[in-house]
Input
Amino acid sequence: MKKLFAFIMSSLLLASCAEHKQTTVGITKEQISFPIGERINNPAFTGEAYLKPLISVDSVFNFPQTNVVTFGPAAHSSWHRHGGMVVLVTDGVGLYQEEGKPAQILRRGDVLQIPAGVRHWHGATKDNWFSQVVIYDSAWKPAETYNDSDNSISDEYYNGLEMEEYAHQTTTDSLMFAAPDSTLSLPTFNGPIRLENTVDAPNVAGSPGLHYVVFEPGVINAWHTHPGGQILIATDGIGYHQIEGLPVEVLHPGDVVMCPPNVKHWHGASPNSRFAHLAVGTNPDRPAVVWTDEMLSKEEYERLPKE
Output
């Protein structure tokens, strides 16, 4: 009986993929978690696509260019090549295809790496919005000349795609990215957290590792500094961040925190919401973090802005 059920489900999935039908509930433009930015007016894109710069390259953090790229249903790029890219799928159902391979169906929480120079395209499925964060080596220059005479993707090609499911991450509790079921109790946090390495270093984009930190409601960390600086990208729920001497920031998905080297700060969840972010220790040749034994008191925390 189990084998029959598995065969039926597999057949249904393959049929669905072949017709570009969604196998999970789609989302609307208004439900996209991250800011979508400005409409892309470029002949290399077909349909409704948007670009939102998230992190620009500078000499303080030395982190690769990072953007949010959002596609409306059936929108897609043309074939192209660029520097090594890490892709983090934040919402919806999309497609990624390397030349000579079946198109991969991507879903919220998926993480993939595109090596420099690989010819590919990406976009949304027919019935879904799709959004991704891309971290890439914008300084890459090809060492060879490519003979890419026609990069266009016709409607006939798009509608007849051979597709397969990507090796999806296993996410829980509606979190954006994969996190362990077990929690950690650390002296530098006032409650349990979950921690996962979402992107390891080295990687094709040349970025430091990205760590996914999940705070339960009301959990915050102690004041601390990062000799190399830190970048936080809020992904889930509502949280807080504060640099010493400055007002508290209330964080929502898509918000980015740039904490310079050796500047004291703290961050964590609001009282009524689980909160998660991607954390990057920039300039990894320097020490990662220096903790203090100072933490907001219960009274100070209760006076924070309410979400």
Remarks:
- The chain has a mean pLDDT of 92.
- The CA atoms of residues 198 and 211 lie 6 Å apart.
